[in-house]
Amino acid sequence: MMYDAFAILMSAYHPSLNLLGITTVHGNSSLPHTTHNALSLLTAIGAPSIPVYPGSANGLTRPAVHAPAIHGASGLDGTTLLPTPINTHATEPFIEAMSTALLSTPKGTAWLIATGALTNIALLFEQHPEVAEHIKGLSLMGGAIGGGFTNAPMGKVDDRERIGNWSAWAEFNILVDPEAAQALFSNPVLRTKMVMIPLDVTHLVLATGEVQSLLLHGKGGGAASVLEDGKVGEGKSTLRKMLVELLLFFAKTYKDVFGIEEGPPLHDPLAVAVILDGIAGAEIPFYDFEDGKDRKERYDVHVVTEGSHEEAQNGAETGRTIVKLLPEGEEGVKIPRNLDVKRFWGVLEDSLERANAVNRANGVS
């Protein structure tokens, strides 16, 4: 959930966005943990009034699966600076809250952003299919393609190349509830409004040492060191130090497990950033076409639902996202192949500085 922190930060503080609310879901940790973490993060960034709704504790048909080896037992290990939440979670049922919030917006303006298991989203459209026609789009971080879709390093486990991060074939968010993912990709209305950000894209955006310094010290901070005597330095604010501590915890686990040493990928905020593509004054260019071809590419996406979570760990393709390029002009799922990485980090830093300003105004260092 470390990268959820950056997704929430950008959603709450980008001037072109209005974060209506957050639903939590089973995934990196249990639902009580992910709900507490969301509330704590909102307090840390000075936005505790944004409502949080506990969502699904299990998949549509499968038990929950967690990732303590990557994110720690709490789902957000690595720092002692997370504050006690100021507010408690909302009590309204999450599906009704999502439907009400989205339908209250002008038609064709609201984005739904999924950065975890897709259970909550699948239940929303199952019970309120009219929301699919109403929203502008659904952006999700999930899936893995492979086959040279991008030049991103996908990592190795036991010296074996793989395309997934939770199994050899599958990305975690899709694998933990593949039935939910397949329900969304097969929805005839949603499939033309969906943007999928797979590992092939997120692994292009690595939080290198230079990026870590930017996040800790801000723009103009020079080449100041992130680590002092093996610990994260004080930096420009407590919030910045907390986020970099979380980042370095994730960097270590990603290095130890997947062998990616340059820095960890920052998955989830890309699902937020992609909806800014094309917005005047806020653009983060994403390139949804193959190098050398200046044309729009759209895809059909199929999720493998056969097999258990255990079988996936033993080589089954459960949770794999199989993509097929559609004929030119046919609408389908947008899957970018690249983005302006430098611009992305600049926009994220701007959001972080806005959060710092709010905290300072509230007397938080």
UniProtKB/TrEMBL annotation:
A GO MF term: uridine nucleosidase activity
Signal sequence region: none
GO biological processes: cytidine catabolic process; NAD+ biosynthetic process via the salvage pathway; nicotinate nucleotide salvage; purine nucleoside catabolic process; pyrimidine-containing compound salvage; uridine catabolic process
InterPro entries in alphabetical order: Inosine/uridine_hydrolase_dom (IPR001910), IUNH (IPR023186), Ribo_hydro-like (IPR036452)
Domain Inosine/uridine-preferring nucleoside hydrolase, residue spans: 4-345
Highest rank taxon of the organism: Eukaryota
Family per similarity comment: Belongs to the IUNH family.
Name under which the protein is recorded: Putative uridine nucleosidase
